[in-house]
Give the backbone structure.
Amino acid sequence: MKSIRMFEHTREEIGEFARAGGAIVVALAATEQHGPHLPVHTDALIAGHVAEESVRIAGRSVPVLLAPVLPIGCSEHHLSFGGTISLSPMTYFQVLRDIGESLVKDGFRKIIFLNGHGGNEPMMQQLANDLAVRHPIWTAAASYWSLARDSLQQIGASEVGPVPGHAGGFETSAVMALAPELVREDRIGDSHPERDWIFAGPPGAFVGRHGELTGCDGYTDAPTRATADKGRLYLQTIAESVSGWIVRTVQAMERGEGQL
């Protein structure tokens, strides 16, 4: 297809693509506070860029479309700071379910969820599982930082702070690369209290404290070491990792078709 963006195609083109076995990627994000220096659009900005670049690269090897980014997620733990729009966990799960059911009715049999906000992950994983139970389809789900963890570690991304953290050096670098005019650099302090217990467990583990689920004052670390150049490197590394996963996942689904 000429474009990887679903919304640029007609109903006939989308239906034909889906019936021919093409996959679709659904990018999940959020609209929530990101400290005093980043826009509330941060997760949607990063997730949208990662999804588009990853699908564009993957599309060279496998048939895949990108659905419109879902810019509102499950951000209950940010509401007390203001500047946040959130869906409750059960409402968010139902929204994801309705999106999945719509895509099934559209004819898609390969649905991939790509997440860009930590609060979305539990419902996304459960929904992907439930869809594959309810329908004779393939599903997959992952957060971009999990897919790129090893690659980001190899390039030393943690030098700017926790990866991905929240509104710290990592995300600030990414926004500096994508939309530098949205970073309020005059509001970046020289230091910020860090809570090492947030990352005390292995990947997939959770440790939480009331009022500080994303760190002191709603963000994890001071972004003093953030730069646009670092952000461009991080985003490129993520896109390469995520696109590789999409290709491997779609190819595995295609191989599996012969095993049904």
